[in-house]
Structure prediction request, 386 residues.
Amino acid sequence: MQTPLTPRPRPQPVALIRVAWLTPVVSFLARIGAPVERLLASANLTTSVFEDPEDLLSLFQVFGFMEESARVSGITNLGLLVGQETSIDALGVFGHLIHRSRTVHEAIETAMHTTAAFSSGIRCSLTHDGDRARLCPQFGDGVAATYRQASEYCLMLALNLLRLAAGPHWRRDDVLLETTSAGGFGDVDLVSDARIVFRQRETAVTFPRWLLSRPLQTYAARQIEERDVEAWKASGPAADFPLSVLQVIATLSSSDCPRIGVTADAIGTSVRALQRRLADAGVSYGRLVAEARFATAVHLLQRTNATVLNIALDLGYSDHAHFTRAFRRWTGVAPREFRRANRKIPRTSPGTPADRTSRAAGLGLRPGSPLRLAWLSTVTRARATG
Prediction:
């Protein structure tokens, strides 16, 4: 009697993080005259990804970008310096949800409960030991030691959260900082009088427990409707490996559907490993891209006034004819026939503002384009229900 084979575990999703986390880093680098565009290009990114702070990037890309930027600029404590001047509010919706809390404890609880919608590669924990509390930003195994800049950036953000309530007379010598690094804190004003323990397994901030009940400083908070918060959470990192790969593809610096090698580099793996993980999830890379193209084509034909030619180019086809043949294979009808039978918006004549808007949007995978919106919504729903 043969022993049944143990099913292989489903592959874990790609770790992702919102663009808002990286924006202060790029702003700092630009201000000191670092070659930002060249550094972004080396990570398969362009400045266009910063048009929407709530877009998602591969954590591997972002953390690697910080390490390379520190090396090229010669600033070995880049993460500390950027974190020192980055307010919690700079982190987009995530930061505003934290800052609208009433107390430090509520702010930390909010961060812990919403981090998954901000990044699938970072977690926060809060523990107590007598009259002390310990806030620890956590990464996957070995990440803190491998990506020192990102780890120290997170450490400073945790400290900045406490500063929202501590006030100007807070004794920072009552704070203990734990870090995986061996130094580099000497010229960082914010922690110049804090106690620091180096070469630890993880980064953390230990502080007086009474600080948890302190109210946060009030400010003109950005008003966020609850339905917008729910939409933001729903747009977060996918819990499914193929969908997380699509989320990476959507922000890569490519005008057409990226080659598999580009995508593999972005998530920090080999082409073979990516193909194997997709196969374990029951899909091939080609099929994944084809599904995204089809869902996007349907979305654009039904809900925008983009011309068939612009849609074809937006999806990476060289001309109208190639797209039409592919669409016939998918549906059995030509794109124009499909649009006539399935129109979801009122028709407008060429040259109207709606037509001009859709034409301007048909430029590829940049944030806010119909291609990207459909990729991350239509395809997600289709695969989740399929």
Q: What stands out?
A: The mean pLDDT is 82. Residues 33 and 267 are 28 Å apart (CA to CA).
